[in-house]
Every structure is written in C-alpha cells, then in structure tokens.
Prior knowledge:
It contains 8 helices and 7 strands, in the order βαβαβαβαβαβααβα. It is an alpha/beta fold.
Amino acid sequence: MPPLNNQIVIVTGAGSGIGRASALAFAAEGASVVLVGRRTNLLTATLAEINEAGGTAISVPADLVEPNAAETIVAEATSTFGAVDMLINNAGTNTTARSIRTTDATSMDYVMRVNVTGPMLLTQAVLPGMLERRHGTIITVGSYAAINASPMAGAAYAASKSAVANLMENINHEFRNRGIRACTIYPGEVDTPILDGRALVPDDDARRTMMHSDDMAEIILLCARLPQRALIEQVIVRPTQLRDTQADVEAALEV
Ligand SMILES: NC(=O)c1ccc[n+]([C@@H]2O[C@H](COP(=O)([O-])OP(=O)(O)OC[C@H]3O[C@@H](n4cnc5c(N)ncnc54)[C@H](OP(=O)(O)O)[C@@H]3O)[C@@H](O)[C@H]2O)c1
C-alpha cells in the first residue's frame, strides 16, 4: 500500500512549479489532495493530470489574501474527504522591488499577507481537527533567503520567509507534544515561474544549474512520509553547482 494512502493533504500553489510537482507526487503516493491557488485553469490542469494517473484530488480555487479563504479551503477539504492530515504551505509571492530602498509599505504588507499570514490562518484552520486526533503535519516552503538575505530575493521576501520559518518553530514549541509536527524547507534556486519576476530573468544556462520542482517534491514527500514520531524540523537544500549571481544582484538593486 502506498505510504500516504488515504492521507488528506492540502497543497497551496498547486497549479504551478513546486506546488504542482508536490500535488502530483502526493497523489501518486495515494493521498487525497486538495489543490489550492488563484488560477483555476492551472488547478484544473493539475487535477486532470492526477485523475488521468488514477489519483484523487479536488480543486479549490482561492486567493489566500481574501478574508475567510483559509476556513473555506479547510471546510471544502473536510466535507469532501474528511479531516485534514497534512498542510503544505507552498504558495508564495514576491515584490517587483527588491531593494529595501524601493520597497514600499503596500508591497511589504502584501508579501507578508501571502507568505506569512496565509500559512498562519491555514494552520489555525487545520489545527483543531489535528489536535483532536493528536496527529498532523504542516510543511512550509520557505527560502534560503531566510538564512542568507540577498537583494536577488529581495528585502520583503527574505523577511517574510524568516517570519514564516519562525512561525513553524512556534508550532513545534506549542504543539509537538500533542502530536503536531511542523517543518520548514529552505530551498535555494529552483527552476520555476516565480523567477520570471526577477529584474534579470535567469536564462537557460542559469536555469540549468538550478534544482527542479520534482526535487522539491521529493524533499516534501520525505518529510511527510516519515512516521509521525519523527520530525524533520528544517531542510536546507541548494543547487550543487553555485552559479555566479553578481549580475542578478546588481540588476535587483536597480528596482
Ligand atoms: N523557485 C525558487 O527558486 C524558490 C526558491 C525558494 C523558495 N521558493 C518558494 O517556493 C514556493 C513555490 O514557488 P515556485 O517556485 O513553485 O513558483 P510558482 O510556480 O510561481 O508558484 C507560486 C504559487 O503560489 C501561488 N500563489 C501566489 N499568490 C497566491 C495567493 N494570493 N493565493 C493563493 N495562491 C497564491 C501561485 O498560484 P496562483 O498565481 O494561481 O495563485 C503559484 O502556484 C514559494 O513559496 C516560493 O517562495 C521558490
């Protein structure tokens, strides 16, 4: 029997990049997957791919910044499949401005809303059910920028990824002895659509050095598959080959 058989898993940002790869991987392991994101067409494509492979999923289009989004997502998941076992906080966003000099309060607030408040509200929505069953896993895709801030990732983004990692630590402090475990993954560069928003969009040569979404899905699955008694608190994962990013940093400092 696949290791994640009948596990009910919410994956945010499931229409593209790491979220899409993770949703496909969870479904292939027998999980019932709840696909969340704003772009319905992308969620529908992920859903079709899962169904074609014989997996189980539903699409729940939602914008994490909307009030009540978290409650709606969890209510939909629970009424369709039952109590949620795992929450994968993967959706993330960035500002156009990367320098702290040009980052305004509105864009800072928006990045914090998606990257920090979104995972917090979803966590709050799944927690009561998890605590009741003394069983639950929350995995958040943070960023290596949380550890090593760089203008390439940007001031607001790096700060948000530090904040959400701290939030995951808090979950462990508060709830690990009640059966809940939280894990933060700190990836370096992964070849996904989010990089198209950079001042200097990485070319094919740069992207060849990067990790793939499937690599991240493997890491997320590793954290999810371990028996509930074992917790991987943090994973730092970076490309083996570290490319020269001087031009990327200089371009980022201009916006
Ligand atoms: N690629 C990298 O180098 C890298 C490195 C470190 C960390 N990460 C992190 O990895 C995660 C996944 O990103 P990715 O690299 O796979 O890029 P991506 O393909 O652009 O994925 C980001 C996802 O987040 C969703 N999203 C954004 N804002 C949302 C909102 N308000 N409500 C709901 N969903 C929202 C997007 O879907 P919709 O637009 O359809 O809503 C999209 O599917 C992010 O947290 C990112 O910060 C990426």
